[in-house]
Amino acid sequence: MTRRALVLAGGDIKGAYQAGAIEAVLRDGWVPDIITGISVGALNAGLLAEFAGFGEWEGAGRRLGDFWRNEVTRPGQFVSMRGWLDMALRFGGNRWAGVMDTAGLRQRVSEVMHYGDLARCPAEVFVGAACLRTGQIVYADVVRQKGSLDWIMASASIPILMPGTWINGDLWHDGGIRDIAPLAKAIELGADQIVVIATSPAQTEVLGTDWKAESLIGQVSRTLDVMCTELLANDLATAENVNDLVVEGAGDPKHRYLDIEVIRPSQVLRVSSVTKFTQRDIQQMVTLGSVDAQLVIDKRADRVFFGEPSMAAVGGA
């Protein structure tokens, strides 16, 4: 039986684009058995699992899109910049908790997300967070274990800029420092038909000389953009090489053919910081995500991948 996975990459506020793409994919009738998410992809994975608690995926996609379109209206409702004195005292007292306070984000997500509803989600849902002590990434099962909100907040916490989350005596941060698009986790869980939704174009944009190089937030956002693009490209190249070996019959017998479709921005998303956006920016990104996803769906002439769920195998064992 084909195992379908939805892989949600990181990308800060550009998760709005991802939400639009998710909405279009689910509207077309594609149903995931597995969802893996990193950073804002973890946030979207958790919200989607909450909304799909009773197995109605098209409605879940619509609710996710509406959350971004209607509720993400201004930066201050989710994050706020700490004052210089507060940061200085925290830094001097070894109590660093980020440039930003994310209490607003945690509060709003906690209002939407309830463990009881998550537990009803029919898909396996894993989000990745990195432990600063060990340097290892851990994927938490947010459907089958409690503490889901902590793991999602940890995965969505950009190091230095945002406070990490203490879980079981360790400090956890954005899993994107280890794995920007959790493709390998989806494969480990048995996926052979995969939709990856990225938040950056296939090539890293060359910025003009007027970009704000002196801005801390600008530098971190730019670093994340480059990481997202390059790490995902490497992961996809590895998967393609494995597929070639499987087709040629020269690979490891344990390997299987992976049918992977990537949905990513057809143009550069100019809004790249969680501290600078408008509701219109968000709505435009959601719309672009939906349009780009629909273009990918329409290009699949065989309609095996998208459309009504198919029981046909996509590749090897």
Key features?
disordered C terminus, eight-stranded mixed β-sheet, alpha/beta, 317 residues, 14% strand, 10 helices
Helices and strands in order, then pairings?
Elements: E1 4-8, H1 15-27, E2 34-38, H2 40-51, H3 57-71, E3 80-81, H4 84-92, E4 100-101, H5 103-112, H6 115-118, E5 124-131, E6 137-141, H7 148-155, E7 165-167, E8 170-174, H8 183-188, E9 193-197, H9 216-248, E10 259-263, H10 279-299
Parallel strand pairs: 1-2, 1-9, 2-5, 9-10
Antiparallel strand pairs: 3-4, 5-6, 5-8, 7-8
Helix pairs in contact: 1-3, 1-10, 2-3, 2-7, 3-10
Descriptive report:
With 317 residues, this protein is of the alpha/beta class. It has helices spanning 15-27, 40-51, 57-71, 84-92, 103-112, 115-118, 148-155, 183-188, 216-248, 279-299; strands at residues 4-8, 34-38, 80-81, 100-101, 124-131, 137-141, 165-167, 170-174, 193-197, 259-263. The strands form two sheets. Strands 1, 2, 5, 6, 7, 8, 9 and 10 form an eight-stranded mixed β-sheet that branches. Strands 3-4 form a two-stranded antiparallel ribbon. The longest helix has 33 residues, at 216-248. The radius of gyration is 19 Å and the shape is globular.
The major beta sheet can be summarized as:
8 strands, mixed
The share of residues in helices is 40-55%
Mean pLDDT: 82
Q: From N to C, what is the helix and strand string?
A: EHEHHEHEHHEEHEEHEHEH
Give the low-pLDDT segments. 308-317
> How much beta, percentage-wise?
5-15%
Number of helices: 10
| Global geometry | globular
What's the alpha carbon Rg, rounded to whole Å? 19 Å
> What's the count of strands?
10
